[in-house]
Amino acid sequence: MKKINPTLPKGTRDYGPIEMKKREYLFSIFKNTFSLYGFNPLETPSIENMDVLNGKYGEEGDKLIFSILDSGDFIKNVDQIEKKDSNKLKREISKKGLRYDLTVPFARYVSMNRDKITLPFKRYQIQKVWRADRPQRGRFREFYQCDVDYIGTQSILCESEIIELVYAIFDKIQIKNISIKVNNRKILYGISEVLNFEESFDKCCILIDKIDKIGKEKFNNELEKIQFSKKQIDGLNSVLFFEGSNKEKLIFLKDFLSKSNKGLEGLRSIEKLMKLSKKFDFDVSLARGLSYYTSSIFEVVIKDEKIGSLCGGGRYDDLTEIFGYKNISGIGISFGIERIYQIMNEEGLFPKNIINSKTILVSCLSEEFMTNSLKLASKLRENNIKTDLYPDNPKLKKQLQYANNNSIPYVVIIGEDEVKSNLFTLKNMISGKQEKLSLEEIISEISS
Question: Which terminus of the chain has a smaller tally of CB atoms within 10 A, N or C?
Fold first, then answer.
């Protein structure tokens, strides 16, 4: 058999025990906080039909969907002409794909289960998604998303509560100095009406979404490539890069958008939110690249950091309509677990005690004492003490080294003397202290 050099596909990772303990700790904070805010858990399949996924993420997003080849001889019935057209070929040989996000599958779920859920419906979902993106720091091809969504309500209270939820999460995980940016897609569309580029609105939003990455100069160059005039570029720059307080931006835009009903509608939404919350920055240059957003949009960043957004989301009014469920508005936000984990790891924000998941190791010095070791381990577990049982009986030094390597703070040693006296040697691996104790005394010592 040919020897295989084991590697991982780019943009994917293994999670070892220490990483998993940290991630489970992080997930537990999200789940508990979401539950406090009234959200219920939901899961959807990793695989979705391509007609569910296609056309929901904009031109660039759709290109990043991982397609799954049909099983069997999938090329057999494909027309020769279609074989020469990669897009047509893809449609013929791939009817399923890996989910790109959690929002579209959620909209599909709501549409399919409309008779089983009560509106407004609130759910949270923590699952993997896949994107055929270029891997880089903080960006992967396989990663977890952590979403909360409301569906079946247009109330601005949802936007306000999402802002409160974001601060609650980041306060618990001790990531400071965050900024919640808020905008409204209707404002952006109003700008396109005033400057007469409605037909290029989606393309422009994709470019606006890239401003932080490409800079103002390249942004303007890209606008020229899609036939924007100098007047349009200057007008757009004057709005996107206007500096001032939330109130000053509101006053400026009311004048700029005075002839756009849709733009003024978006401004009224921002104005209502300002009355409910003072904890966000009104950022007109926020666009969010996904095409299904229709009004409010969010993004959370760390001030003065270049790691990118930690959360993003918005309101979508038409997403369920594609699946036959009309007039249902939804809003949600997605937390970037991978980037949040990375920041917490780099800044040492994970509690030290989450790594020490096992409290005690029961050693075994001889085969004849295996029964005693098993009984002792069972008694400790009955008392809710996390217990590891060494499976072999090598020299004690090796078993103690195993405890050290796995950060286990206590070892109980069972040998001939211990069995006869019914007093067991308990060794504290941190202090080195060693004493003979009964089972009840061991339980009391460790539990205290």
Answer: N
